[in-house]
Amino acid sequence: MLWCIGACLLAIAAGPLSPVQAPQPPDLTVGAYEVTVAGHFKGKGTAAVGVGTITISVPVRQQDGQSGTLVVANLPLNKGRFSGQGTVLGRPVTISGRLDPPDGKILKRARLSATFLTVENRGGRLSGFRTGS
Hints:
Blueprint: H1 2-14, E1 31-39, E2 41-49, E3 53-62, E4 67-76, E5 81-88, E6 91-100, E7 111-118, E8 123-130
């Protein structure tokens, strides 16, 4: 009987049982990316993925020789996907894309891919990989 009372007191003192929450794994898509643009516009540049946002800046040249920059600033990420507005050579552009985390087998580093289109129906594709380890 005494052991039953002791066990009850110990259970009350310990408090309610709750599962131990494991720490969240690091987001392997966050970081700097080297990207390449192909299509009507061509160039190489960078992208930066933060927690919940992506920013892209790529110097580009279009087929007629005009040059400028593809800029997409602070687009929100939702489950590795993004879409929104930016500019290319100062003109509005619509972009949509995705981030793929490394799987440790085929994909060794996080990958970024996107398509974009101007209001004149000139567009391209953007792809690249996270730099560093």
